[in-house]
Amino acid sequence: MSEQSPVKITVTENGWYQVEGTTEIIASDGSLIREGDKFFLCRCGHSNVKPFCDNTHKTCGFVDDGLGKKPKKD
Ligand code: FES
What we know:
By secondary structure, the chain is mostly beta strands. It has a domain at about 10-60.
């Protein structure tokens, strides 16, 4: 039995949720949207490719509540 690291979700400053660790993104109908080890999920609600971030948060004026950390997007 292999041991996996826990998934880590980082709230970025005025931006996306950064998800690190083996993850499956599942649609409401149960179908697989994507699987992988790193995702950037929309937090502002304005992305055109939800649930993923498309950087619209930079132009829509999204400002978070101060919970976010400085972003580290590769
Ligand atoms: S957080 Fe980036 S588009 Fe919403």
